[in-house]
Amino acid sequence: MIFNIAVGFILPWIVVAYLLRKQKKFIILFYPISALISFFINDIGFVYFWELHQFNATALPALPYNLGLFPLLGCLFIFVIHIKRLSLPITLLLFVFFTTIAEFFMVFIGKIIYKNGWNIAWTFLSYLFAYGIVYLYYKISYKLMSG
Q1: Three-point CA angle 48, 49, 52, nearest 5°
Q2: How far apart are CA 78 and CA 135, in angstroms?
Q3: Which end of the chain is more exposed for a tag (fewer CB within 10 A), N or C?
Q4: Over the chain, what HEC string results?
Q5: 23 to 17, 18, 29, 30, 114: CA distances (angstroms)
Q6: Which pLDDT band, with edges at 50, 70 and 90, does 19 fall under?
Q7: Residues 6 or more apart from 97 whose CB is under 8 A from it?
Q8: How far apart are CA 52 and CA 37, in angstroms?
Q9: Sequence spans of domains, the chain
Q10: 48 contacts: CB under 8 Å, gap ≥ 6
Q11: How confident is the model at residue 38 (pLDDT cuts 50, 70, 90)?
Q12: Cα–Cα distance measured from residue 92 to residue 139, given in angstroms and rounded to the nearest whole number
């Protein structure tokens, strides 16, 4: 569990707090929706499709990831699109690709165990879905704040 807390919560908060220290609004606006999506996907996933090493069918070990890594990646994703002005397709594919590769590494070292036919392609699609929802939320929020 110490690994999950360090990698899923402490390290992401340190990195993103540094990167977004002058752009706190991205954390305030996009953290909640990103965390909600993370909880939703992981709660379904832990019941049917994956587990963390040594923790069978429980979402509790994913709590550091649900409150750290995944929502902060959502904030960083929107920051890159909005402030850095990188194109959506490139940014989306880069974030999905690197998040999928990171998870593949976790599968490779045995920290995540797939079951019931789940594989890295489904993982890619789940991240595509998650980042896509965060982007849609961004577009809706932007229109509401601009109009």
Answers
A1: 110
A2: 7
A3: C
A4: CHHHHHHHHHHHHHHHHHHCCCCHHHHHHHHHHHHHHHHHHHHHHHHHCEEECCECCCCHHHHHHHHHHHHHHHHHHHHHHHCCCCCHHHHHHHHHHHHHHHHHHHHHCCCEEECCCCCHHHHHHHHHHHHHHHHHHHHHHHHHHHC
A5: 9, 10, 11, 12, 36
A6: confident
A7: 124
A8: 19
A9: 26-146
A10: 115, 116, 118
A11: very high
A12: 14
CB distance 34 to 73 below 8 Å: yes
Q: Quick check: 99 and 125 in contact, CB under 8 A?
A: no
Residue 103: both structure tokens together:
């998870």
> Does 57 score more than 60 pLDDT?
no
Count of CB atoms situated within 10 Å of the CB of 76: 21
As given in the structure block, the two tokens for residue 73 are 């990646």
Sign, CA torsion 131/52/31/44: positive
Q: Which two tokens stand for residue 95?
A: 């974030």
What is the pLDDT confidence band of residue 59, given thresholds at 50, 70 and 90? low
